[in-house]
């Protein structure tokens, strides 16, 4: 909880001090169990979007009553990851095929 409080002390969400504080917190957050895993680019995009969302919304996080902080964080992050995956599932797969040399 101390690392979260340290991060939230810096009101400028895009400021370097807050970014540095979040960078110190991120390894601990990434150790929490992630329940929604699947292969593919969309999962990696959803995970990336989730960490960005966590960085921007960390200070709105609230521990659930009678629950340990890590359980509440785990649920909060996994819920957002699930939402991001649902958004990306509705989008078509990006076409990342490189052109053939003969097409150049």
Instruction: Compute the number of helices.
Output: 4
Shape: globular
Question: How far is it from the N-terminal to the C-terminal residue, by CA?
Answer: 55 Å
Q: How much helicity do the residues have?
A: 55-70%
Total individual domains: 1
What tags apply to this protein structure?
0% strand; 104 residues; globular; mainly alpha
Task: Give a brief description.
With 104 residues, the protein is an all-alpha fold. The chain has helices spanning 2-8, 16-30, 41-57, 69-89.
Task: Give an account of the 3D structure.
The structure is a single chain. The protein has 104 residues and is mainly alpha-helical. It has one domain. The protein is built from four helices and no strands. Helix 1 runs antiparallel to helix 2. It is globular.
Element layout with pairings:
Blueprint: H1 2-8, H2 16-30, H3 41-57, H4 69-89
Helix pairs in contact: 1-2, 3-4
